């Protein structure tokens, strides 16, 4: 976050807060999980799973629960919540590291055993040199906590995101496509914005009649002089209930 965002700002933030995923090393975490299997539950229907640590856990797992997961939720609450979330959509429709198949009610802040697909994509996208160098566990807000912000801005580009984006708008609300939780968020009055390139928006464009039949409006800004990227935008107006 420092090298890719915070350190590039012309006016740096006075304070930044990233979940404390480095307090416990991956090797130490894996050893704790292997030695205390009765201290947690694994939940999820796909390859990516949430590790739900029990209240009576001890040692490293207690530290993870109290000082990393619960503490991050408390810090968000202490600031009165989040005004704006800017989040990338994953290739299988995950939001943050709320992987496909993890129940929405698993935990506000998740300890996630990553899907192999997520790890492989991290390498393909250049974040890690090889699969062996990529973390296998991550700390992340769950979808329900992500969508507690006043405004959620979702970014997606490339053909890998085409199906999940269409499913999140036109399909049911399901943890199989975690980003679909945005429908619930918008229905409850949240301000939801999609910013998509042509590839990610491809299926929505092909199914424009269905999109419009649901009360959505597609705003294509690719030909506008102010457009600096090949993008489309979808914005929900909480006053009208429309997404445009």
What does this protein structure show overall?
The chain is an alpha+beta fold and 244 residues long. The protein has a single domain (6-243), classed as Rossmann fold (3-Layer(aba) Sandwich). Helix content is 28%, strand content 20%. It is built from eight helices and ten strands. It has helices at residues 26-35, 59-78, 116-124, 143-146, 162-170, 182-187, 202-206, 208-213, and strands at 40-43, 49-53, 84-88, 109-113, 137-141, 151-156, 191-197, 219-220, 231-237, 242-243. The strands form two sheets. Strands 3, 6, 7, 8, 9 and 10 form a six-stranded mixed β-sheet that branches. Strands 1-2-4-5 form a four-stranded antiparallel β-sheet. A hairpin with a 5-residue loop joins strand 1 and strand 2.
How do the SSEs run, as a string of H and E? HEEHEEHEHEHHEHHEEE
Task: Tell me about the largest β-sheet.
Answer: 6 strands, mixed
Average pLDDT, to the nearest integer?
89
Radius of gyration (Å): 19 Å
Structural class: alpha+beta
- Give me the CATH fold name: Rossmann fold
Provide keyphrases for this structure.
4-stranded antiparallel sheet, alpha+beta, disordered C terminus, 244 residues, Rossmann fold
Summarize the structure.
This protein has 244 residues and is α+β, with helices and mostly antiparallel strands.
Give the topology.
Elements: H1 26-35, E1 40-43, E2 49-53, H2 59-78, E3 84-88, E4 109-113, H3 116-124, E5 137-141, H4 143-146, E6 151-156, H5 162-170, H6 182-187, E7 191-197, H7 202-206, H8 208-213, E8 219-220, E9 231-237, E10 242-243
Parallel strand pairs: 3-6, 6-7
Antiparallel strand pairs: 1-2, 2-4, 4-5, 7-9, 8-9, 9-10
């Amino acid at each position: 976050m420092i090298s890719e965002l915070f350190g590039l700002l012309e006016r740096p933030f006075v304070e930044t807060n990233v979940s404390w995923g480095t307090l416990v090393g991956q090797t130490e975490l894996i050893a704790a999980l292997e030695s205390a299997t009765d201290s947690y539950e694994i939940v999820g229907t796909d390859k990516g799973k949430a590790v739900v640590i029990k209240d009576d856990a001890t040692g490293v797992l207690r530290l993870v629960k109290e000082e990393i997961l619960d503490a991050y939720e408390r810090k968000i609450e202490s600031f009165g919540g989040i005004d704006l979330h800017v989040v990338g959509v994953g290739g299988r429709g995950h939001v943050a590291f709320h992987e496909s198949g993890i129940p929405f009610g698993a935990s506000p802040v998740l300890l996630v055993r990553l899907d192999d697909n997520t790890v492989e994509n991290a390498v393909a996208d250049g974040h890690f040199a090889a699969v062996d160098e990529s973390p296998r566990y991550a700390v992340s807000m769950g979808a329900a906590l992500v969508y507690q912000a006043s405004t959620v801005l979702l970014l997606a580009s490339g053909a890998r995101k085409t199906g999940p984006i269409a499913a999140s708008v036109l399909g049911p609300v399901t943890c199989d496509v975690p980003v679909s939780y945005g429908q619930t968020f918008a229905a409850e009055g949240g301000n939801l914005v999609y910013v998509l390139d042509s590839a990610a928006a491809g299926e929505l464009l092909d199914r424009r009649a269905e999109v419009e039949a649901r009360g959505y409006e597609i705003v294509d800004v690719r030909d506008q002089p102010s457009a600096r990227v090949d993008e489309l935008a979808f914005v929900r107006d909480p006053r009208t209930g429309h997404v445009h």
